[in-house]
Specification:
The protein has 11 helices and 18 strands. By secondary structure, it is of the alpha/beta class.
Length: 371
């Protein structure tokens, strides 16, 4: 059976290693780690491979750690043409320099579809474009574009410390379809006398932006436009209370299909303005969801209907104790208004009662409880 397994490449195409694994009371030593990685690569033959590993320094010197990482990267590069997925967790960017160099030309990794890089230490000024604790990207499987990162269709940057690092990636990847950004630090303000070049993301359809309370997204949005955006998700603090308005101004709200935003400082009247501008919405989640928003979604005689194409609604932050009847009335009214599509799915609070759940099911809805 061992010989059979050794000679069956499809059994070796998913590699997952962690040097923090404890065996016989000891961590996985560098030689064993390298031997196991090499064995998996050899036994996978010519098949595409997915590699996931974590390698952090132990009590040995940092110099030893760098040497060990250099050997690991050298081994990885021997099968670069077979990479399908790479997920790596290491101490810092410097120790994967060879890997980052290789990734500047993705034509050398034609099968690569997903890449994730997570580091312990992000304070390395030599790597401004990679300065996120978690960086990942995905690639379109049929793309044959050349020049660096042009094949990227999805990009995720977590804990990005600057507008500049995010813009570097955006400019390198003009064919992005999905962008997911979390900004953790306060952004420097641009001087009025320094005109900004506005970058148009012609293919971007999904945009997810999160920021800590002290982070300002304004300088990033000021450099971008989104002509075909259909899916927006924002999770921000009070500093960015106008972000939805800014995004709608820099996109085409008439074609927006999905809208999710978490911001407790947005006025309800502002939310209603956003809904008027986005008539093609099929999915809506507003946090917090309020009775005024339910009123706006409720159909009525002579009343201009909001979101006529709405099919899915998340009300998991609605106060069911005081607003459940209003929710039922809204669902019922929309199902009887020929100008509107009927709601198909609704997500409710996890602590909703069984009778509340059943009442919505009886209206013909698919009902899910927020996890």
């Amino acid at each position: 059976w061992n010989k059979f397994a050794e000679n069956t490449p499809c059994l070796w195409t998913g590699i997952e290693l962690d040097n923090d694994t404890i065996r016989d009371g000891k961590r996985l030593d560098p030689k064993t780690f390298l031997d196991r990685l090499g064995r998996w690569i050899r036994n996978s033959g010519n098949a595409p491979i997915s590699i996931k590993f974590s390698y952090l320094p132990d009590h040995n010197s940092y110099e030893d750690y760098c040497k060990e990482m250099k050997e690991i990267i050298s081994l990885l590069l021997t099968c670069q043409h077979r990479w399908r997925s790479l997920k790596i967790y290491v101490e810092n960017f410097s120790v994967v320099q060879g890997l980052l160099d290789a990734l500047t030309n993705l034509d050398n990794a034609p099968k690569l579809r997903e890449f994730e890089l997570e580091v312990e230490d992000t304070k390395d000024s030599n790597y401004p474009a990679w300065q996120a604790e978690y960086t990942s990207f995905t690639l379109h499987p049929k793309s044959r574009l050349h020049s660096g990162y042009a094949r990227l269709t999805g990009l995720e940057l977590s804990n990005s410390p600057s507008t500049e690092s995010i813009m570097w990636w955006i400019k390198q990847a003009p064919n992005l379809k999905t962008l997911d950004v979390f900004i953790r630090l306060k952004q420097p303000e641009h001087h009025q006398h320094s005109p900004l070049h506005v970058w148009k993301l012609d293919n971007l359809s999904k945009l997810y932006i999160s920021a800590s309370n002290r982070s300002d997204i304004g300088p990033l949005l000021a450099q971008l436009t989104f002509p075909v955006l259909t899916d927006i998700c924002v999770n921000v603090g009070a500093t960015n209370s106008t972000i939805v308005e800014d995004l709608l101004c820099r996109s085409n709200p008439q074609v927006l299909k999905r809208l999710t935003f978490y911001c407790f400082r947005i006025r309800e009247t502002s939310v209603l303005t956003y809904l008027k501008q986005t008539p093609s919405l099929v999915y809506l989640r507003v946090v917090p969801m309020t009775s005024m928003i339910l009123d706006a979604l409720t159909a009525g005689s002579g009343k201009h209907p909001f979101c006529p194409d709405l099919e899915e609604l998340n009300v998991s932050t609605l106060d069911f104790l005081t607003n459940f009847k209003k929710l039922l009335d809204m669902v019922h009214s929309r199902s009887h208004d020929t100008r509107l599509k009927s709601l198909k799915k609704i997500t409710i609070p996890y602590d909703a009662t069984e009778s509340q759940y059943r009442a919505l099911v009886n209206l013909g809805l698919e009902v899910a409880k927020e996890q």
